[in-house]
Amino acid sequence: MAVIETEHRVSETTDRIEIHSHHHPRLVHHFESMEQQREAGTLGMWWFLLTEIMFFGGMFLAYTIYRHLYFDAFAAGSNVLSIWWGAFNTAVLIASSLTMALAVYHAQMGNSKKIVFFLLFTVVLGLVFLRVKYIEYSDKFEEHVFPAGDFRWPLAEHPTAPSNVGQLLTMFIGIPPAGHTAEAPQQALPANIDTKYSDKSPYLGISGAIPEEVSKMGMAGHVRMYFWLYFVMTGFHALHMIIGIGILLVLAFQAWKGKFSKEYHSYIELTGLYWHFVDIVWIFLFPLLYLVDRHL
Amino acid sequence: MSEHIVSKKTYYTIFFALLVGTALTVAAAFVNLHNFNIVVALLIAAVKATLVILFFMHIKYSTRLTKLWVAVGFIWLFIMLSITLTDYLSRAWLVYKP
Amino acid sequence: MSLIAVDPIEMGAPQVDGEPLSYLNDGHGLRSWLLTKDHKRIAILYLITVSTFFVIGGIFALLVRINLLSPNGVFDADTYNRLFTAHGIVMVFFFLVPAVPAILGNFLLPIMIGAKDLAFPKINLLSWYMYMLGATFGLIAIIAGGVDTGWTFYTPYSTSYSNSNVLLAGIGIFIVGFSSILTGLNFIVTTHTMRAPGMTWFRLPLFVWGQYATALVIMLATPVLAITVSLMALERIAHVGIFDPAMGGDPVLFQHMFWFYSHPAVYIMVLPAMGVVSELIANMSRKNVFGYKFVAMSSLAIAVFGFLVWGHHLFVSTQSVYLGLIFSFLSYAVAIPSAIKVFNWTATLYKGSISYDTPMLYGLGFIGLFLIGGMTGLYVAALGIDVHVTDTYFVIAHFHYVMVGGSLMGFLGGMHLWWGKMTGRQYPEYWARAAMVIQFVGFNLTFFPQFILGYLGMPRRYAAYPPEFQVLHVLSTAGASILGIGMLITIVYFIWSLKNGKRAPANPWGASGLEWRTSSPPPTENFYETPIVTWEAYEFAPIESMQVLGYPGDSSRSTQPVPKEHGTED
Known about the structure:
The complex is a heterotrimer of chains A (296), B (98) and C (570).
Chain A: E1 6-10, E2 17-21, H1 34-69, H2 71-78, H3 83-109, H4 112-142, H5 165-172, H6 218-256, H7 266-290
Antiparallel strand pairs in A: 1-2
Chain B: H1 8-29, H2 36-56, H3 64-90
Chain C: E1 15-16, E2 19-20, H1 30-34, H2 39-67, H3 77-96, H4 99-113, H5 121-143, H6 157-161, H7 166-193, H8 206-238, H9 251-284, H10 292-305, H11 321-349, H12 358-381, H13 383-389, H14 393-423, H15 429-456, H16 470-500
Antiparallel strand pairs in C: 1-2
Helix pairs in contact in C: 2-3, 2-4, 2-5, 2-16, 3-5, 4-7, 4-8, 4-9, 4-14, 5-7, 7-8, 8-9, 8-10, 9-11, 9-12, 9-14, 10-11, 11-12, 12-14, 12-15, 14-15, 15-16
């Protein structure tokens, strides 16, 4: 580890011991070298990402268990989602990972203008992703499959989703396709379920599955569980994306101001790690949520 | 600075591979592989994730210790998922005869 | 080699208000403390707030014990539920989890490895603010009427039936968990990247190994608590039924997720204390820890194995019996590294130059009480026995032996060992020994009868009980009062010592470790020069080569810095 020349002297002005050393202006005082500082930052970000793996992991655990218990309901729920939107979003997010990697590349080259360009490109792609998620969420509300509220199952007719690229693009900018109907007659939950503070005593069969007669809501309730996991998992994912976009905007501004250089661009690398992680979460979410039992 | 600079060409190649992987995932979903559909989907996703981790996140060029930590994260997730799933899978083995 | 105590005056440190410049007087005023980046000041901030919550948790404990003096109780069942829940939440999340890491770890880790600060000082400060925020939420939850679910928040009661402040408490726990994660992050990165030249892994004090292993557990387990609490909170709001069997959910899934964190959490609570105990035993017997590498590796082994045993909390749920068998086996396995440590500490004492100052007393107390707690843990790890004693006072006695007899004793031992280092003042030795003995007696009187109570069938979390249990309950409450008095004495003399204690020299114990090579209290940058380490851990100089400090209470006891020795610069 590099040894910095240091000198201790008592400052005349403040009467305190000062340690002076000759180092990069961006070196924080408790680190010995820029390399140590960088190493610490990278290790720190990786460990933070490990905590994120375990955080999302809990949701994946709930998904795994309930998919095991209620596969048919998961298949039914999954088929309500639009593969077009899902695949499109996956491609958008992968592209944003590319632009993020290129931003890091240009940071390593020390090219501030290109850093700003690629950071903003990443932000734009992230916003596209969120726009699609907004469309999907709105559709789910209209189809009455948002789990907390007026949930109805089964769907009386298949929800509106794009079936080709043209429709995808027009719906993206907000133009509904021809023949789109918002309301359709649906079947509501059984009326005798008081879902607030029910005083039925819980029972779980030995086999691990909830016996149908106990789970009064049957298929509808299980599909509702699927959608709840859909919203929670994609919701937390979207939250992480929003935070990431915020950080990217701050970094873009700082890069525009010339804060970064070949020797100092850690924050961009570390944000890149975070952004790629968010991409990886989606890489798993897509097949698990959108592609259950899709074969014809 | 001792960081390895990954070439733009590598980035574009990986990007293309990821897109191909996505297309494969969707295509495979329409083939009836019964219980193996989920296996195939997760396998492709794992490959995609590995590519992102190795190249976009520079793990291929990182120290052994960093590689260890990444592995630890996924191993721990696997521990949590597999042991809990074992509970549900093995509950039915013990059948009570009334 | 010998230990050269550093005299700040000799190093040319200026004086501030008549005292040498140290981290304590380097900057005055509330702002300099609340916006500090100095790990030592942050440790003191934690000390004040964590101790406050310890007292709050203790008050709830006393209320619980008062209720149990008579079979019909003093409080009604609903209030009693809120009392023991408050005791559990406060003690687990606001005291035990942060105590040793955030106070002693924050203060000592950088100094012990020869660094100027932790890797991320601002994140360190953030972790304290998150602790304050989370603890405030918890406090509000309690003041607003409390929670009646038990600190384990089992569903569906907590999500669908309870009419108490589950959401507020959940938010508080989530935030405090984040604080814990930030501390763990700092420890891992600091230990990996900021060790002084020559400070290899196997030259580190075992205290550092303990904090490091704890940090690993914190990072991998706490996020699962975060998501579990989030799902519970969302369920409370949305009532979708994820954990409610009446709506298709599985309450045992909640238990799996909750205990996936909460079992490693008990290792978060005990591993740091074990790290302290290594320091107590080694330094107070002036002998290298027997089997240093084994103790270091055992810390890691406990951290890893601790993740594989959570199902032993689910033995009597509908968890698969086959999985239960595996968890039972693994729970026995996890005891092995702990046993290795206990054996090695005992072997360290053999032929050591033992002094019975307070830190040693706490170290010995830890060994004995942790032994009992750990052994009774093995009893409950057996499936068959657990069916009989689960949810009884046997389990309560078991975990209080490890948590109070173990963790708390370790924490207090560390506070005494390093009090002089942290504050520049020594505590009064005779009062401290008396307090320790009172605490020891009170503790055993409180919790040993509970083993018997549990075995005889007294269930836990019950506000009222059959009259035949009363004698044991009265003994237990008497013990709790004695324990409380002992704790009070400690708190009082610590505060008293801040102004009136004898000034602490750099190395009052003749101990080994980099922290003893800097002044008491240390300067803001910890060292005047970056240390270069060329010696192994726990190397003690022969006692004749040091100016003998004398026994406690001996008026010849030196409070002057130890003079430099000739030609002993390493």
